[in-house]
């Protein structure tokens, strides 16, 4: 039986001190790097970008340069969401999808627009859930897209109810084995899980100083690359596609580092990517 929204109190959604600290971080988060980019077309993301940026955005009148950079970064982050959706497989309007760690709702809204399907987003940030539901209401798609204050480790949704699930830079906040056990329960047989994440390169041993700085900045716990595949395998999720997106995300970070919305973490990301201690991966896995 599904958990009703009224039962989703803070006490039963946020079960540990760490989860409460993460929720507090995202409830208070109002970074321009997320909000100003979303204002471009009213589509708000909480992830990074992919692809080369147009160098011409750095040229032209100084008074409009920052606006051009913001528009270009938003184009790159929307392109990243499109890459994720490209890997979901065949999705039909009757299918139900899950966005685990849905932020302000951008990718869920894009999925509904592309496939015509139903999408539920879950987040432990009540502020983000409210924001995302307002976005769905403004688009008049609340019959198809809804966001819920729920824990992705224990969603309360019905077993086998999802054709596809994705996580977009959210797995670093949870135990992977516990997470993928829940996803395996939710997915129908043959269903698809897609993950885009940053992970430490354990071929090099322990995490680097740059990766540790990223952890501290986002109150997260970045997993090693090998841990993803161990946890997937342990829960009947078989990788069908693995794409190294590291080189493709570096231009986004280089442009962001030059913008007024930089948060100070850009150097750590660029250092980690370029020294090889951090990878940006897409993993698509099927439920068997």
TrEMBL record:
Single biological process term from Gene Ontology: methylation
GO molecular function terms listed in the Swiss-Prot or TrEMBL record: magnesium ion binding; S-adenosyl-L-methionine binding; S-adenosylmethionine-dependent methyltransferase activity
Keyword Transferase on entry: yes
Main EC class the enzyme belongs to: transferase
Signal peptide range in chain numbering: none
Gene3D superfamilies: Vaccinia Virus protein VP39
Entry-linked Pfam families: Methyltransf_25 (PF13649)
The protein, known as: Geranyl diphosphate 2-C-methyltransferase
EC number of the protein: 2.1.1.255
Span of domain Methyltransferase: 98-191
Highest taxon of source: Bacteria
UniProt keyword terms in alphabetical order: Methyltransferase, Transferase
């Amino acid at each position: 039986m599904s958990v009703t929204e009224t039962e989703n109190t803070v006490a039963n959604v946020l079960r540990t001190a760490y989860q409460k600290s993460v929720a507090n971080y995202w409830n208070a988060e109002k970074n321009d790097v997320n909000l100003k980019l979303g204002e471009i077309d009213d589509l708000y993301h909480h992830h990074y970008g992919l692809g080369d940026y147009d160098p011409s955005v750095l040229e032209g009148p100084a008074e409009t340069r920052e606006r051009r950079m913001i528009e270009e970064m938003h184009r790159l982050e929307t392109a990243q969401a499109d890459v994720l959706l490209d890997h979901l497989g065949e999705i039909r309007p009757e299918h139900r999808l899950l966005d685990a760690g849905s932020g302000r709702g951008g990718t869920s809204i894009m999925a509904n627009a592309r496939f015509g399907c139903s999408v539920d987003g879950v987040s432990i940030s009540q502020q983000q859930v409210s924001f995302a539901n307002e976005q769905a209401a403004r688009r008049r798609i609340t019959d198809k897209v809804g966001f819920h204050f729920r824990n992705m480790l224990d969603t309360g949704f019905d077993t086998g109810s999802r054709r596809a699930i994705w996580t977009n830079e959210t797995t670093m906040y949870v135990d992977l084995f516990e997470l993928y056990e829940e996803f395996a329960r939710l997915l129908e047989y043959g269903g698809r899980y897609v993950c885009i994440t940053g992970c430490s390169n354990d071929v090099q041993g322990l995490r680097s100083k740059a990766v540790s700085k990223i952890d501290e900045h986002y109150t997260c716990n970045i997993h090693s690359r090998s841990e993803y595949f161990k946890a997937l395998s342990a829960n009947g999720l078989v990788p069908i596609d693995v794409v190294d997106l590291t080189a493709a995300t570096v231009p986004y970070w280089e442009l962001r580092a030059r913008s007024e919305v930089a948060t100070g973490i850009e150097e750590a990301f660029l250092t980690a990517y370029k020294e090889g201690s951090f990878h940006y991966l897409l993993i698509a896995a099927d439920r068997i």
